[in-house]
Amino acid sequence: MPRKKAKVDTLEEIETSIKLLCDQSKNHMKSREYEKALNGYNQDIKNMV
């Protein structure tokens, strides 16, 4: 006989998914800001030389 899946609260599952999505988007924005800052820094270095 197949085992029964543990009952997961749908609302809790949705909240967890939303939190994970927010965390991913936050990390994505951090990496984009870092990339912009790094590009700006590299341009400044080129201008100094």
Features of this protein?
mainly alpha; 0% strand; 49 residues; 80% helix; 1 helix; single chain
Describe the structure.
- This protein has 49 residues and is mainly α.
- The protein has one domain (10-48).
- Helices cover 80% and strands 0% of the residues.
- The protein is built from 1 helix and no strands.
- The radius of gyration is 22 Å and the shape is rod-shaped.
- The N and C termini lie far apart (73 Å).
SSE layout and pairing:
Elements: H1 10-48
Considering DSSP H and I runs of 4 or more, what fraction of the residues is helical?
A: over 70%
Mean pLDDT across all amino acids: 85
Query: What low-confidence regions span 5 or more consecutive residues with pLDDT below 50?
Result: none
Structural class: mainly alpha
Produce a short descriptive summary.
This protein has one helix and no strands. By secondary structure, it is an all-alpha fold.
